[in-house]
TrEMBL record:
UniProt-recorded name of the protein: Endonuclease/exonuclease/phosphatase domain-containing protein
Stretches assigned to the Endonuclease/exonuclease/phosphatase domain: 74-182
Domain of life: Eukaryota
GO terms, molecular function: catalytic activity
InterPro entries: Endo/exonu/phosph_ase_sf, Endo/exonuclease/phosphatase
């Protein structure tokens, strides 16, 4: 979250949500406002990367670590509308240090640059576009994130170096302010030990005889359903009759199989 308006007079314990750890960076200035904060689920292994952060801008870096696969770097940013050139210079230094680690990078936050209609004639806009292109970052939010009676702009962004790892991006049309939340779901293919197995339940059609199965179904007393007045009970009765017949011709069995890498969904 950005624009937290927090300062050192507000303790982290007052912001606590059960099951989550807080990382925050308040505005380092006399001016009121700004600030960024992240809530990270306790089960997610992570490390705050203060070494990537420059104190002059409101940014927060977190390294998310997953078992048996590469970690990713997540940067959360807030750019005040009044700043531009110096902010981009500082942000580029942070991104450059992060990029040097050759890890996947995801950037999120309020950049106050309208990607719905980015003006390439404005030097600052072009400089930021050149920066993200240089480091292979792609902006993946394509719907307005701030909507007022007068305009709709896309100023809250998500950037990624690996678009193929992204499953879904959403901008829900509700908010407690004039900004909509931006949400991203990323996939992960963890490496799993070749010796690991799992058990699956399946139906064996090895001895299945289609003609005998149909004959058996024909002799099943489905007509008894007509005496059942409740629709749900009738459907359940039919289902059980059908399954009992199917079990005779294609019985359920349990088998141990190798566990291959699967896709997991992770939220941040």
């Amino acid at each position: 979250m950005v624009e937290t308006f927090l300062n050192d007079e507000i303790g982290t314990e007052t912001l606590q949500i059960e099951g989550y750890k807080i990382e925050r960076k308040d505005r380092n200035a006399i001016n009121y406002g700004g600030g960024v904060i992240a809530y990270i689920r306790n089960s997610v292994c992570h490390q705050r990367r203060i070494d990537l952060e420059i104190s002059s801008i409101e940014s927060l870096w977190i390294e998310i670590k997953f078992p048996n696969t590469n970690s990713i770097l997540i940067g959360i940013f807030y750019r005040p509308p009044s700043s531009f050139q110096s902010w981009i210079d500082s942000a580029e230094k942070e991104i450059d240090k992060a990029s040097a680690e050759n890890k996947e990078i995801i950037l999120l936050g309020d950049f106050n640059i309208n990607f719905s209609h980015i003006n390439h004639t404005v030097v600052g806009n072009q400089k930021w576009k050149d920066c993200i292109n240089l480091y292979g970052l792609q902006q993946i939010v394509h719907k307005p994130t701030r909507v007022t009676d007068k305009c709709a702009t896309t100023i809250d962004h998500i950037y990624t170096t690996d678009v193929d790892h992204i499953i879904e991006v959403k901008v829900p049309s509700y908010a407690v302010s004039d900004h909509y939340p931006v949400c991203v779901t990323r996939k992960l293919n963890p490496k799993i030990s070749k010796m690991e197995h799992l058990s699956i339940e399946y139906r064996s059609f090895k001895q299945f005889d289609k003609n005998k199965f149909i004959e058996n179904l024909t002799n099943t007393p489905f007509y008894l359903i007509e005496s059942i007045g409740d629709v749900d009970e009738a459907a359940n009765y039919w289902y059980n009759l059908f399954l009992s017949t199917l079990d005779k011709h294609a019985p359920k069995k349990i088998k141990r199989v190798k566990k291959y890498p699967t896709t997991r969904v992770v939220d941040f």
